[in-house]
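Data availability excerpt. The first of two example chains:
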Amino acid sequence: MSPARSPRWLVTGAGGMLARDLLPRLEAAGIPALGADRRKLDIVDATAVREVFAAYRPAVVVNCAAFTAVDDAEEREEEALAVNGRGPRWLADQCAASGAVLLQISTDYVFDGRADRPYREDAVTGPRGAYGRTKLAGEQAVLETCPEQGYVVRTGWLYGAAGHNFVATMIRAQRQRETLDVVDDQRGQPTWTADLAGQLTALGIAALAGDAPPGIYHGTSAGHTTWYEFAREIFGLLGADPDRIRPISSDRFQSRTPRPAFSVLGHDRWAKAGLAPIRNWRPALAEAFPAVLAAASAG
């Protein structure tokens, strides 16, 4: 009888905000993991992907690598598609061949943002920009190439201590500006990367145990808010006057890409995996805030 394979995990995009919370979470859970940034593994390179799989033989792959510059994707869609669409296909090819589980991180931008109730996991997609189109291509590649081991986890409005994000931006802006204009007609779910990291860890473990059906899951916090209301909450945690923030409409915000007006995702499918959805965004922000504040102050 051959020895059982060690349940090693491979985390791509290891230099990014989510992966930098996920890798410590895996270590704390006693899960051996290889964090591969672009220098170690460029997922656009199919040969490099094959070589890493042959050398490391992961049981679970979490693909955090992505082209995330939403506006730049409009002018560099082919480059974005290579990372967000073809890269996941190369990973999915190797997972299908080896039997490894693939957790593909996706986005709320695959929807058109015109809904008035939370998007279900099986809701019709309709991206309005290049970024959403390329991420949807990645979803389709994973679900088509390894339908038995492929998991798509859509998220949005991410913040954390390890990267550029809205919370850190508001912390810095509060010190530099007397008033701030923040859009109040876009609604979504602020999600702490540490909470999402815990959810991905639980999903990967459940998938290996055969307890989580493959397919699409929504990895965002419960509840929802607008950017304006989110900013007021951040100012409150800083002890600053929230009335220094002024609500504006999106048509006053210069952007090459239309932002979804409604990015609220439903979480029904977690029950099929025996897992609870991520908690409400407000207590998560309160818990995350000291670390994000420290990082923003040091940056």
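And the second chain:
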Amino acid sequence: MEVYYTFCFLAAISVFLGFLNQYVLRAQSTIAITAGALALSLLVTGMGKLGLVELHTWADQLLPLMNLKDLLLKGMLGFLLFAGSLHIDLHMLRNQRLEISLLVIAGTLISTLVVGALLYLFLQWVGLPVGLVYCLLFGALISPTDPIAVLAILKNLKAPEQIAIQVEGESLFNDGFGLVIFTVIYALAFGGEEPTVSAVAQLFAVEAVGGVLMGLFIGTLFHLLICATDDHSLELLLTLVIPTAGFSLANLLGVSGALAMVVSGIIIGNFTRERGFSRMSQRELDNFWSITEDFLNGLLFLLVGLFLITINLNPFDYILILVAIVIVLLGRTAAVSIPFTLLKCRRKYHPYSERILIWGGLRGGLALALALAIPEGYAYIEGQDVRHLWVVMTYGVVLFSIVVQGSTIAPLIRRSSAIVEPEQSAEGAKQTKTRS
């Protein structure tokens, strides 16, 4: 029962921080809760070092029981992805399908390679001969932008539609592809087997394609069920079954539950909303999932803040964190700039598109969960546990992206909103002129 009680108290703290934020900081709720959790963690850690309170042992025992990795990857992720994808405009998603595809596939690969290579060169330079495969593993876990963090930050910011759909579409879809890359490199690093092209292709087909097909099946099934009833309460309960039983079924079948939730959420949000819900029910649907999303976001980022208590940092760790932040930003810049160099040959884009995509590439609990999945004590380099190094760097990047990038992206979005979006393409303009 200790875990349950802790969840209850953490949830209360999360709500209290959100309540306090509206009168004091007035910042975006995720930023305020993350900053508040960080402040509480630092306060408790400092009090522990002074001997005033000792929570390090308690946190060391409690967090493994909570199993933050499974809690996020097999629990909260389904709810948050489904809630976020309910608001995706399918028409805009189709219009930006090439951009999103390149950002998801090419961008994630480019970021993984750039981050891994730069980290490898730095560690070799400082005398830590960490293998390239371990550096690429860090690149794989940190490269996908976290949909939880991105959607939470951008939810209430009125970005231009073209930019908003690029950021949201990429963040919702690239976790599936990123997980495939992480799984392959993880097998190479710790499995002792060299993955073949056919094995990688099969893994991608099962995870990604299987997840999309599962999402189509779940979304279509519940679309028919919701349209068949006029009971408003039952309609909401049916949507609740999707990220619970539907997400669990996808994971048990070995396909990407994350992609299944995104696809099913797009179906419910674009088709079922209009045909299966009345006007009043649509408002209830939005309110219900908005409250659920805000609550889980607050709890998640408070848990991430609590995790700081269990990390023992040494002076070299702080240097690693600073280096990791710079390297990840360079990797993100390459991951966005290279695809856009190709895309600009066929279409005009908003002047702020690249800047917002680069600075809005936030990381969150998903990256930390993948870092925690690395086995402890498996690989030591000069007395340093690779898992500890990767977790420390991941935590630093997550905090920087949420607190610093998340709190400073608003001015960029406001400036972008004052500029009229360019025409999507010359072909589109010709079609519009023909129809008129």
